[in-house]
Write a structure and sequence with these properties.
The protein has eight helices and twelve strands. By secondary structure, the chain is an alpha/beta fold. The strands form three sheets. It has a six-stranded mixed beta sheet, with helices on both faces. The chain has a four-stranded antiparallel beta sheet with strand order 2-1-4-5, covered by helices on one side. A hairpin with an 8-residue loop joins strand 1 and strand 2. Helix 4 packs across helix 6 and helix 6 runs parallel beside helix 7. The chain starts with 7 loop residues before the first strand and ends in a 5-residue tail after the last strand. The relative contact order is 0.20.
């Protein structure tokens, strides 16, 4: 996949984890470069499946997933994934330092690149407030970090990678109000100028979306802006 602008199209996509049991039915939509698309709907409606198909973790049984008009089945996973960022509800951190975890996205980055990314994203002070700052040891899966701290580290990692397409399964339940505000501020900077898909649970995120797709039982039942819906 050459350098992408970030246009994503689903064209009549039907998909099931078991081929005879579809979880998505005839899904079609277009996200233009830089747009933010909110995916809303009940648990199990198919929101995360859409994100998984964009990331090419799975291949649809019918229809096409296109990035910049290119069928993503026809490109290498590595060339596609290095232009995508993904922050899930379960944040994956590894044994090592905070610095190591952030540089995982771009191993060739210098320490100064990481510090610069954190400053620009607005996570620098929060990370410096940890026991040893960027040299703080992270327990396996981030066991010795709060949910909010883990999210800010994962956002910084995604920001350093500078993806054209960013996907977020929002998870701010369990964080206090001050941390939530900091996460929100960092998230706005992270999404700026990128095609973003957000599995949205909070009204504030939905209101800012360029388009909302309402998913019910694997089908898009409504689409439009917050005002239109």
């Amino acid at each position: 996949m050459p350098p992408i602008e970030g246009r994503v199209e689903f064209r009549n996509v039907t998909f099931g984890y078991k081929p005879d049991k579809p979880v998505l039915h005839d899904i079609s939509f277009v996200a233009e470069p830089g747009q933010m698309i909110a995916l809303v709907g009940a648990t199990g409606s198919g929101k995360s499946s859409i994100v998984s198909l964009i990331a090419r973790f799975y291949i649809p049984q019918q229809g096409l997933v296109l990035v910049d008009g290119q069928d993503i089945r026809e490109v290498t996973g590595e060339s596609l994934h290095r232009q995508m960022g993904l922050v899930l509800q379960t944040n994956y951190l590894f044994t090592g330092t905070v610095m190591d975890n952030i540089r995982y996205a771009r191993p060739q980055s210098t320490e100064e690149d990481v510090l610069d990314a954190a400053r620009r994203l607005g996570t620098y002070e929060a990370i410096m407030s940890l026991k040893d700052g960027f040299a703080t040891e992270v327990g396996e899966r981030g066991a010795n970090m709060s949910l909010g701290q883990r999210q800010l580290i994962c956002f910084t990692r995604a920001f350093l990678a500078d993806p054209r397409i960013f996907m977020l399964d929002e998870a701010t339940s369990s964080v206090d109000t001050a941390t939530e505000q900091q996460i929100q501020n960092s998230l706005e900077r992270l999404m700026r100028g990128r095609t973003t898909f957000v599995v949205a649970h909070r009204l504030s995120t939905i209101q800012r979306a360029d388009r909302i797709l309402v998913i019910d039982n694997g089908r898009i039942i409504e689409r439009g802006t917050h005002a239109e819906l």
